[in-house]
Design brief:
By secondary structure, the chain is mainly alpha-helical. It folds into 2 domains: 1-25; 51-104, no CATH class. It contains 3 helices and 2 strands; from the N terminus they run E-H-H-H-E. It has helices at residues 61-69, 73-86, 89-100; strands spanning 51-52, 103-104. Strands 1-2 form a two-stranded parallel ribbon. It binds zinc ion (ZN).
Length: 109
Amino acid sequence: MICPQCGTENADHASFCGKCGRELEGAPAQPEQQAVPAQPIQRTRPDKLVRCSDDKQVGGVSSGLAKYFGLDVGLVRLLMILGLIFGTATFWIYIILWAVLPEQQCGSQ
Ligand SMILES: [Zn+2]
């Protein structure tokens, strides 16, 4: 503990300077607890389900679904195609999604 007034070195626990009697700062300076701001999680996908206007083969639904669920666009398209082959439900789901989902730039990937 060095006295800020006269520069005399005092014991660390000393409250007053042994030479000039100046009151010393309390405990040895501790590093201030830095409040680390919570890092926002990097979102690599859109917050909501959208159609990707900049990455579409048909209506952008597949790429929108892929981005939203973090899946490969090709895989989603393949599932869509398989769904279209094996049933008509997928077709209607696609149509409904296409009609309902807002179109948005998803960024090239
Ligand atoms: Zn002193």
